[in-house]
């Protein structure tokens, strides 16, 4: 996908401008002539490609995804986003505002594209290329409302920002979470109906929509539909687990691999900011900082997560750097650092005894994250890195998730299951990790599998949340959220912590957001 030119084309075509609310995006009311745009499949696909690109997703995937999905869930430790570590998040949190703004901005783009493509089709445009594009927009819109419903619970739903702007009524209410989830599901159903059976790697298909629907159904505890949709993806034969687990997150050559259903598409570039994947420095061990690659280890593995891995689980070394972890291909060197250079000359060694100035690593949990860290730079034996930027896609839905969704949906709230297909699904994931197969399954075993399989991918908080308050409280309060110098436990997890507060600035502009939610559907 030609994402640089694509983004420029789409923005110039849409002529988006901000409205009164940050979460409402609308086209210029002076009117855009669609006759000059979207006259063929290439132009239309160029426009919808922007919905996948890192640029609009940047403020979510850069730190907000980590803070919400992994720090809050107890998978990551940090000294930066402490409010997510100890559940004191306020409506003024930078990460909340960033995620909210990113989600509603992309929804705004989707809204404008849907309206524009429908108008183009009504004027005689080609349905053969406009209909799949409209379906792509429905998928993005549905996926984002799924994220919004899980993150904030009740939230506004915007589908026609132009009409809202013309009406002059910007008092948009919050709608009930169940209605936001229903809207998200209806969007994904439209996507499923309109997307093609197959496309080039990285583009959406109806099986991606089925996979996201399975995830939403599972969140709603609609086990029958979750199982059915997951099974459709499995039976399609279009996806498979890849052998290079680490490479899924660290190698550009593995972008859009056979395990990836839906990914944010990145390019190795510094400009515009967000074109590249900027998770690299926040996760990289400081011992791997070089002239090419930034690394300041803002987020590190939690002690509680490290305890979760079974003995022999290969995902531990595939996801985490600890004492003894090595990469002989990485040979970082620094100017005027003879001891460091000597220590690293034979290849990178993660060492918690060596002084940090000489190449040692002494993070508060004596560990660092492997996922999405591309290495010290091409000159030093790693992937190409430009400062904070790598070219790795950020994967939001992968085949391993479909397999575990299928197993949990088969369990369907029962105490245990020995269903052969459910076991086959879970054991495929475990076999790749070098673990022995299960002979029966419980919910806690599946949640364990999800935690270690998707660690640092921004998903575990939602796994905890969907258990309901009582179980979520029990899960959170047994976690050690401290460091090697002192344990720390949450003792006051309350029900109001299950969802994040709406950004304060949004409520100031739209006081309706501070009121009780109302129904969206009659």
TrEMBL record:
Keyword Signal included in the entry's annotation: yes
Name the UniProt record assigns to this protein: RagB/SusD family nutrient uptake outer membrane protein
Keyword field contains Protein biosynthesis: no
Entry's Gene Ontology cellular component terms: cell outer membrane
Coiled coil: none
One Pfam family here: SusD_RagB
UniProt signal peptide: none
Family classification: Belongs to the SusD family.
Annotated SusD-like N-terminal domain residues: 75-218
């Amino acid at each position: 996908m030609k994402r640089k030119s694509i983004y420029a084309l789409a923005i110039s075509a849409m002529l988006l401008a901000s409205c009164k609310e940050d979460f409402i995006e609308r086209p210029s009311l002076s009117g855009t002539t669609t006759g000059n745009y979207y006259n063929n499949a290439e132009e239309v696909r160029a426009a919808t490609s922007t919905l996948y690109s890192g640029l609009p997703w940047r403020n979510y995937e850069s730190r907000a995804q980590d803070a919400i999905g992994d720090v809050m869930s107890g998978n990551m430790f940090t000294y930066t986003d402490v409010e997510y570590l100890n559940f004191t998040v306020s409506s003024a949190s930078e990460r909340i505002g960033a995620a909210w703004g990113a989600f509603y901005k992309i929804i705004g783009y989707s809204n404008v594209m849907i309206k524009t493509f429908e108008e183009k089709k009504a004027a005689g445009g080609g349905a053969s290329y406009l209909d799949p594009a409209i379906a792509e927009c429905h998928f993005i819109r549905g996926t984002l409302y799924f994220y919004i419903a899980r993150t904030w619970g009740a939230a506004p739903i915007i589908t026609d920002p132009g009409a809202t702007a013309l009406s002059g009524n910007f008092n948009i209410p919050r709608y009930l979470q169940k209605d936001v989830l229903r809207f998200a599901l209806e969007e994904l159903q439209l996507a499923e109906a309109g997307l093609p059976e197959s496309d080039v790697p990285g583009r959406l298909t109806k099986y991606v929509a089925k996979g996201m629907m399975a995830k939403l159904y599972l969140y709603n505890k609609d086990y029958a539909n979750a199982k059915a949709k997951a099974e459709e993806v499995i039976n399609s034969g279009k996806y498979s687990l890849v052998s290079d687990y680490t490479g899924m997150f660290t190698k550009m050559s593995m972008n859009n691999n056979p395990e990836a259903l839906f990914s944010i598409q990145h390019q190795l570039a510094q400009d515009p900011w967000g074109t590249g994947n900027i998770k690299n420095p926040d996760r990289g061990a400081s011992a791997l900082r070089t002239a090419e690659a930034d690394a300041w280890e803002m987020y590190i593995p939690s002690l509680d997560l490290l305890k979760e891995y079974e003995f022999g689980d290969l995902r531990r070394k595939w996801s985490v750097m600890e004492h003894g972890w090595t990469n002989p291909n990485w040979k970082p060197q620094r100017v005027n650092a003879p001891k460091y250079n000597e220590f690293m000359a034979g290849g990178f060694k993660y060492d918690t005894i060596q002084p940090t100035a000489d190449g040692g690593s002494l993070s508060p949990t004596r560990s660092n994250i492997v996922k999405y860290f591309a290495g010290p730079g091409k000159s030093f034996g790693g992937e190409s890195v430009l400062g904070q930027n790598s070219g790795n896609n950020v994967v939001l839905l992968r085949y391993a998730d479909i397999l575990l969704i299928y197993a949990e949906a088969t369990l369907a709230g029962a105490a245990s299951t020995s269903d052969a297909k459910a076991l086959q699904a879970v054991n495929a994931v475990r076999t790749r990790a070098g673990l022995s197969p299960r002979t029966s399954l419980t919910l806690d075993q599946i949640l364990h599998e999800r935690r270690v399989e998707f660690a640092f991918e921004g998903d575990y908080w939602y796994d905890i949340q969907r258990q309901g308050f009582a179980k979520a409280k029990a899960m959170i309060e047994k976690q050690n959220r401290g460091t090697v110098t002192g344990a720390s436990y949450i003792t006051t997890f309350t029900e109001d912590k299950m969802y994040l507060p709406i950004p304060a600035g949004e409520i100031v502009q739209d006081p309706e957001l501070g009121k009780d939610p109302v129904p969206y559907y009659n």
